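help with this.
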Amino acid sequence: MMPSRNNVTTGIPSSKVKYSKLSSTDEGYIDLQFKKTPPKIPYKAIALAIVLFMIGTFLIVIGALLLAGYITKGGADRAIPVLIIGILVFLPGFYHLRIAYYASKGYKGYSYDDIPDFDD
């Protein structure tokens, strides 16, 4: 008696595997391979973008008030660095928040995949 053949990779006996003939008109493609999975929303990256946006906005306002003279501590020598740091913190926060907003609204060309995520 001959031993039964098993599928080496899965261990399933070949008598239990069901095969079906492919249609000659589908060219080997199935609809499932073109279906997009729903995007994973990067909550941590969006939270970081919100924090950067808020800190940058705060520093820009403080720098503008220092430059205008409403806050008399320091002057222009302290206002310029505060403005530069505020702009450098504000820009990435605003950019990623904009992408997240447009992706949530479903605008064409915007996706949550464009926001870098923390791979935990």
Summary: The chain has a mean pLDDT of 81. The first helix runs from residue 43 to 68.
